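Before the break, one more example. Copy the sequence into your notebook; we will annotate it together after we see the structure.
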Amino acid sequence: MKNTQHNPSEPIAAVIPAEPLAASSLAKPPEVGQSANVNVVPNLATTLYRSYGYRHPKTGNWRILVQGRRSYDVPTHLGLGKRLMLRGLVKRLQLPPTIYDNAHFRERVSGFLVSAEAGHKIKLEIADQIFSIRRRTRKSGMFGGRVNVAAGAFTNCEVLGRVRRQGEPTIVRTHDDLTPAANRIFLADTYGINIVTDIDDTIKETEVSSRQKMLTRTFVDPFEPIGGMADLYQQWAANHSLLFQYVSSSPWQLYRPLENFLDVFGFPAGSIHLRWFTLREEILKKWRLARRRGKASVIRTLIKRMPLRQFILIGDSGERDPEIY
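Here is what the structure looks like once it is written out:
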């Protein structure tokens, strides 16, 4: 990433909440050539995901990991392929035609159906400095990279070490962007403890052992927490300086609903690590296979980047977490 000079005359983006998916934007899938929603004007939106930063073991400088997606805020002008995939999902779940009126269903399929913007240059503000991400947004709209920040840049921010250093949350914001966005970065000192926890069937009821139940809980039912887990995690967080990292095989397209689930049910805030795959993989019965790949790689990367910290791994047997750990 390249550090560029900040122009004081350019306003820094403020945090704005994501707009809820309009009820009409997922009406019954339209015929070929028709707009999926003639009443809602789509707007480009940038989403920044909750992430983390760690100290370089030799220099002591901070390395901040950033990731997000740039896409339209509502699904419109659905092509034939997306309409067929949506209908295939509805048929697979044996859902009634009225499912398009279900708010949970509309919200959760939205991330799979929206159009993304590829080739966009992302600029971010971190610690009063402006950074450009070297790689532009991909075809999916996803982007990510690493920012190197001086050791003394976060003197007033919370740092999770052997003892928690109290301070303000570290925020990353988009800069010079018509689609402002912001989210938290969690700073991990050289020494400390990471709680790496799965989401599905560890803290959220998903029933991954049953494909039909898993998909219904993922796309239709209200998200439900596993009893007592939020209280347990909060008790740990209150008594120790911990970095919580939610590593799941769930897709990035469900980021907003999952982030909201963690907040609503009182789980400690932390970085979120998901996977990218499509509805097509579900229709072709590859989703469960895709879910099993990649989690071990994410955890290995976390340990490699923070080798002097201790890691506690929490999961369940539904997706072979014990074997992965």
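Residues 223 and 258 are 9 Å apart (CA to CA). Confidence is low (pLDDT under 50) at residues 1-25, 30-38. Try to locate both features in your own notes.
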